[in-house]
């Protein structure tokens, strides 16, 4: 994207010239009803701005990694787990996901939830919890209640 560019907003959280794709599995990464669109990707800025959308009741992969995220909710409501904190989120809330914090986003049952996510263009692969890590995380009642929906 080296030319001046307008990605005009279209109805239903779509943008001109931007493809929305079902989120692809990396290995056996568990997620449900989530789609991704890359809105911005410019080597000069070394970051990407993506839009993710989960259908009602959908959720993102429960993961962690060295790279950080800045997330802004654009539509819908839901909850997110970041580290051992659970936040209820609504449009225009900003969530910072620090390096190596376990995180997951979950849309509320009745409506889709979409968010912008800014991320390094060059980034490490997400890690999934090992069975031992998952057991340790689930020992925290707040985390367990979140993961069990
Ligand atoms: Mn992530």
Bound molecules: manganese (II) ion
CATH class: Mainly Beta
**Overall average residue pLDDT:** 93
Strand order of the largest sheet: 3-4-5-11-6-9
- CATH fold-level assignment: Jelly Rolls
Care to describe what's here?
The protein is mostly beta strands and 149 residues long. It has a single domain, classed as Jelly Rolls. It has a 6-stranded antiparallel sheet with strand order 3-4-5-11-6-9, with no helix packed on it. The chain has a 3-stranded antiparallel sheet with strand order 8-7-10. Strands 1-2 form a two-stranded antiparallel sheet. A hairpin with a 3-residue loop joins strand 1 and strand 2. The longest helix is centred in the C-terminal third of the chain and has 8 residues.
What are the key terms here?
about 150 residues; Jelly Rolls; globular; mainly beta; 2 helices; binds manganese (II) ion; 3-stranded antiparallel beta sheet; 6-stranded antiparallel beta sheet
